[in-house]
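User:
I would dearly like some help making sense of a protein record. Take your time, and here it is.
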Amino acid sequence: MNAPTLHTARLTLGPATAAHAEAFIAFCASDESRFLGGPAEPRDAWEGVAIAAGLWALRGYGPFWVAESATGAPVGRVGLYYPIWRTEPELAWLVYPAYQQRGFGYEGAIAARDWAYATLGLAPLVSLIDAENTASIRLAEKLGAVCEGPHSPDGGHPTFRWRHPAREVLQ
């Protein structure tokens, strides 16, 4: 199963493409990928793209790959991340540095969250955010998420669990 395609005022959220994979591999090679455990080798980044695509086949949902609708340029990824080692689905986002500070993370996260609530009927989602990732913390706060406290990290960095408002609260 591929991801459906969602549209916002400025973004297209959909399945992975070769252009998205190339952009993600380039991002993962940079120091900007530190909150994802990077910098990473191209093979590891490629496996990250494959895992994201595979979640759609195994779970029926996963991360959307985001493009700027006007140009088609890859902007990042946003959506649900729920591998077997997690206890609940995470609303996760990543905006490439050239596209930050434009509200794309907020726009994409709202679209993915609302789709997940409306289509899948999921309980309130969480976001697991590195304690030093101030941009993602600000976005979580803007989305109405509340910090529940420390979370046992997957990769060793101090991480906090942010709980998003329930669908009923948003209506």
